[in-house]
Structures are given as structure tokens and as C-alpha cells.
Specification:
- The model has no long low-confidence stretch (mean pLDDT 95).
- This protein folds into two domains: 245 residues, Rossmann fold (3-Layer(aba) Sandwich), CATH 3.40.50.300; 41 residues, no CATH class.
- The strands form two sheets. A six-stranded mixed β-sheet has the order 6-7-8-3-9-10, with helices on both faces.
- The longest helix is centred in the middle third of the chain and has 18 residues.
- A hairpin with a 2-residue loop joins β9 and β10.
- 36% of the residues are buried.
- With 288 residues, it is of the alpha/beta class.
- It is built from eleven helices and ten strands.
- The chain binds adenosine-5'-diphosphate and magnesium ion.
- Adenosine-5'-diphosphate binds next to β2 and α1.
- ATP-binding (A) component of a common energy-coupling factor (ECF) ABC-transporter complex.
Amino acid sequence: MRITLEDVEYRYQANTPFEHLALYDVNLSIDSGSYTAIIGHTGSGKSTLLQHLNALLKPTKGRIIIGDRTIEAGRKEKQLRSIRQKVGIVFQFPEHQLFDETVEKDICFGPMNFGVSEADAKVLARKAIQHVGLAEDILEKSPFDLSGGQMRRVAIAGVLAMEPDVLVLDEPTAGLDPRGRKEIMDMFYDLHKKRGISTILVTHSMEDAAKYADEIVIMHQGSVFKKGSPQEIFSDPVQLLELGLDVPDTVRFQLKLQKELGIRFDKPCLNIDDLAIEIDKAMKRGNR
Ligand SMILES: Nc1ncnc2c1ncn2[C@@H]1O[C@H](COP(=O)(O)OP(=O)(O)O)[C@@H](O)[C@H]1O
Ligand SMILES: [Mg+2]
């Protein structure tokens, strides 16, 4: 499912003394089946943007085309449920939204809310819990008896159980340990590859953006600053650093080699293997 934003503006508390312009002139197209990373400073509008992708927020100007639906500023919309089912959002710290007495009931809540029978919802819950790498016996437990990492996985399972076409992830691994982070990021990537789920990830990790995404969007002060492939985005690391953003460690190392030793590179290296190859080439060329 393709999502297109056209001239989107969003003002919080519009027409009040507390009005705040959080997004403006946002033009963006997210292809069906793509993996898009959104990066940018805190306050640059990333979470506000994400909430437009399933019509939780409606633009105060412009329009958003989500599959065959158009959400237009100033127009009343009906039947947003089908959009909410197709575009699943994993919010920051999603475990804060767990509420039911058992994990199973919590996960079944979403699908049942969209009209799935209890029996079918239980099947979906079982599948979802396996997907996030938890054992089935956890279904009978109270979500509040789990560890933080388990709670996060249960909350993610609740979104997966709705079988969305598009998965929107707002810093899904914030606060997890490195191993948990990698497991969860690999799980999302696997879902993206095997089921063709379009994935939109907000992250502060440039390594994750470089590793998983086909496209990176840089948000800056409420608008899209730049969009491109990881190669394109990280080909100008100085610009990113000047914006106060980070770059992958491998790119930082290349900058250092260039500055200290005069080694020139043809392209940014987004992983260690690539870096080793490019250093080897540069040494053989002898251009230092
Ligand atoms: N509920 C709200 N009411 C008023 N302003 C808000 C609200 N939520 C966010 N903002 C403001 O909108 C801007 C964008 O916020 P946000 O989308 O959360 O950015 P990010 O996710 O990139 O950190 C910030 O200036 C933030 O303070
Ligand atoms: Mg945010």
C-alpha cells in the first residue's frame, strides 16, 4: 500500500494561543513494500508525521493518500477503522499501553476490535507471540508480571496480530539492551522481507537506518530536509554532522582517515566489510 503526503501541514491546538506548527510543506511518497527510515532531532516532527500515516492526526493543510483513501484537511472522514487496521503503529514505549488481565486478552483486543471472532483472534495471538520470540505459555500471564523486554514484545505482538500491510515503528527499541535491540530489529526486517510489509522506522540509530532501510528521510524543524538511499544520504556526512545528526561509525571512521591520512574514498561504507574493501582499494591506489 502506497502512502503519499502532499503539502501536509500540522498545527497542534490550531486557533488557540497555544498553537504550534509541528509540520509544514511535507511532501513524501512511501512505496508499497519499501523500508523507510526517518531520522531527525527530537522535536523535528517525526512522531507527528507518523500519526498522520493512519489518520490518528489529520493534516491542518494538504492531504494524505493511504492506499485508496484520501484524508484531506478540513474534511470529515468516516470509516477510519480500515486504515487503522492496515497501518499498524508501534508507539514509543508501547508497553505503557498494555492493560488487560492476560497477555492473550491484550493481544486479542486489537483484532476483535476490527471484527475478528474470539477464536480467530486467539489463533492470531498465538502466531504473533511466536513472531516476537516468546513462548506460548506467556499468553496466560498478566502483562504486568513480565520483564520490560517481554512487555515490549507483547505490545508489538498486539500490533502484529492485526496483520497490517504497513508497519510504523516509533523508536521501537528505545531503552532495550543491545541484544534485545538486534533481535527485535531483525524480526521486523524478517517480516518486511517475507511478508512484504512496508516498514517505516523512526530511529536515532544511524547504524539501523543504514542497515535496514532502502530510503532515509531526514526531518528538520518540521519539514523534510532530504530523502534518498542510505548511500545518497551518507555521501555527505559533513552536512549531517553540521545539522547535529550522527553518521554510522564506519562513515565517521572514513572521515577520520580522510582528514588525518588524506585517504580518499569513492563512496560511504555502511558496514565493516565494505569499509575493509574500500580501504584495501585506496591503499592499492596509493592515493594518500
Ligand atoms: N500534543 C502536543 N501539543 C503541542 N505541541 C506538541 C504536541 N506534541 C508534540 N508537539 C510539538 O511538536 C513538535 C514536533 O514534535 P514531535 O512530532 O513529537 O517530534 P519528534 O518525534 O521528532 O521528537 C515539537 O516542537 C513538539 O514540542
Ligand atoms: Mg518522537
